[in-house]
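Retro notes, structure queue

What went well: the backlog is down to a handful. What didn't: a couple of records were mislabeled last round, so from now on we paste the full input next to the output in the thread. Example, using Nucleoid-associated protein from Amphritea atlantica:
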Amino acid sequence: MDLKFLAIRELIKEVDDSVATISDKGGAINVNDPMAQQLFNALVSAYGRRAALTHGSFNDENSEGYPFISGFKKFIDSTPDETSFLNLCDQALAQLAASLQQPSARAATGGYVIFIYYSSDVFDYLLIGLVGDKTGVAFDQELNPTKVIEVDLEKLHQAAKINITTYKEGSDSYLSFIGTRRKGDITHYFSNALGCTDVVPSKKSTSDLIKASEDFCRHYQLQEKQEEIVEDVVSYLSRQRDDKQSAYLPDVEKIFDSHMPPEQAQQASGSFSKFANSENYQVSQEFQPHTSTINAYTQVKAKMDNWQLDFSRRSLGTLNSNSEIEFDPNSNSIRINRLSTKVIEQLKQALDLDD
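Corresponding output:
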């Protein structure tokens, strides 16, 4: 990873206070300073450990209400330098301070806002995190215990990361932000200040979750159970869709944990959320299941000029698999087994066959 720009500023606000102010302290930090590199690595690592990220995009439909969006576009359209980077930081701070003063953020507190512009592999990123501090103990030169104030990166309650490269490529999902773990309850003031929305097309979220489910099975050598596990995941999505409810990653994680063999439980249990929430899949903590995508995994529709079939995917198998519908790839034909009495009578009547 290559750190390009780093800035630290402070927002001052106490719990139940209706006023948030921007401190005059802080500014650009020398990226060659070893401590700057240590802070950079620690913050990126802390963000990467979170398994409750919400993926989304900018609220372009109302971009005029979010000055940070236009400021960000201006920043990446030019050749970024320290001056333009600090200007972007100022815009973000102003929006964060205004958002902190909203009634919905009454219980929120201020902290240190860390801005990082960096590259990793072939991607450029902008990471903005709000962290607090904590009291620690250190020893002075005489080994007397003394109080020190430490940045508490483990309590990274608010942060947002924008993949600048995928944004320029026109991707549907190019940013992520931290929300709480409670269902349906995402802390909005931080993400709203930056113009972030959790609007990722439900089709993409649904298909990415199913792909992540299949890849997770392969990654943890669960191929023998893969069909059953993915079927359970899709069934869960179907139930949530039918009940007009969102799908939640922790719920899907429980499905995987229930299928996990004892010898793999210690290594893999409780890890699916982080797997699916990673950069590779970007499945949000909460999303709406997509009907057509679910049906594509649960239903098979075959149509010819003179007939059509519509059946559950679980009914399909290869020849001699004892499935209700068997496909023979050698003769390119299908066989339908275990017909009901009613269907048998219908076929006989159609062919005018006597018993």
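Agreed that this is the format going forward. Reviewer comment attached to the example: Residues 70 and 199 are 19 Å apart (CA to CA).
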